[in-house]
Design a protein that fits this description.
Layout (H helix, E strand, L loop, with lengths): L7 E6 L5 H9 L5 E5 L16 E5 L12 H14 L4 E4 L21 H18 L3 E4 L13 H12 L2 E5 H10 L16 E6 L1 E4 L6 E4 L6 H13 L5 E4 L7 H15 L1
Parallel strand pairs: 1-2, 1-10, 2-3, 3-4, 4-5, 5-6, 6-7, 7-10
Antiparallel strand pairs: 8-9
Helix pairs in contact: 3-4
The structure holds fe (ii) ion.
Length: about 270
């Protein structure tokens, strides 16, 4: 990983219904890659222009769980990562959930303790060996602080150091967590080794019904405060290689286009 490699702009892929608009965006020069989220429905991979690189991401394997990772899910991820030559595989630092894929774990952050740090680092190393490429770790939005480590950002930083992993900074999750816990909007950034951050995720956020919390929201465009932080990160992170916009397929294509145009301008 070197800073001389180009910074690329991509879009998250969840459903085959996105294929048409993503191909259109590619032809318009608005995206450089697609980031596919696993698991996907077997037989329904992204059907995008073969010239579009595909990065592989898996937000639901509970790698911060003492239960261990779901190897059936990891096998599907590895097959895709090899097929598409994904430069790294994104994984979430989530706890176990009741489903076979640990789906609920996406929103359950592990206890922030040295024991869970070791579990997560061990699982990250095992997965990286199994995938044959780096794992890039991402945090889910956080709603409360539980444990003895200072924060989830400190936890992420420690796990990444111990496992020699890369990091995806999800700016929407990061912003929601900082608002939920009444912290400054750049809280914790200085605790992360900037050389490890290779990718940003960009999305909207929305207030909860009660107004007390903020949630990730892929059906909204990012608010100006998030775009300003993204711009700052693009200018300052030395190893950044990818910026992924996460946008729901039900939302207007015009919002996809206008946000990609705004992100592209920042990257020039
Ligand atoms: Fe994300």
């Amino acid at each position: 990983m070197t800073a001389t490699q180009p910074l690329r702009l991509g879009v998250r892929w969840d459903e085959p219904s996105q294929d048409v608009r993503l191909n259109r965006a590619f032809r318009a020069g608005l995206l450089d890659y697609v980031e596919a989220n696993y698991p996907i429905t077997p037989g329904h991979p992204p059907r995008v222009d073969p010239a579009i690189p595909i990065y592989v991401h898996c937000p639901v394997n509970p790698i911060a769980s003492p239960q261990g990772v779901n190897w059936r899910l990891a096998a599907q991820v590895r097959e895709a990562a090899e097929q598409y030559r994904s430069p790294w595989v994104g994984e979430h630092l989530c706890w176990a959930g009741p489903g076979a894929e640990g789906r609920l774990g996406y929103i359950v952050t592990p206890l922030l303790s040295e024991e869970f740090q070791k579990v997560a680092a061990d699982n990250t190393r095992k997965l990286s060996d199994y995938y044959g490429r780096p794992v890039a770790l991402e945090l889910a939005p956080v709603y409360q602080h539980t444990g003895t480590i200072d924060s989830e950002v400190h936890f992420l930083s420690k796990v990444a150091e111990e496992a020699d992993a890369l990091i995806i900074l999800d700016v929407a999750h990061f912003t929601a967590s900082n608002r939920n816990l009444a912290r400054p909007m750049d809280f914790g950034l200085s605790t992360i080794n900037p050389q490890r951050i290779v990718e940003l995720h960009v999305a909207g956020i929305r207030p909860s019904g009660s107004g007390r919390h903020w949630h990730d929201s892929h059906d909204r465009v990012p608010e100006p405060a998030i775009l300003e932080l993204v711009q700052h990160l693009i200018r300052t992170l030395p190893a950044l290689r990818a910026v992924t916009f996460e946008h729901a397929e039900e939302s207007p294509e015009s919002e996809l286009v206008s946000t990609l145009e705004a992100l592209r301008r920042m990257m020039q």
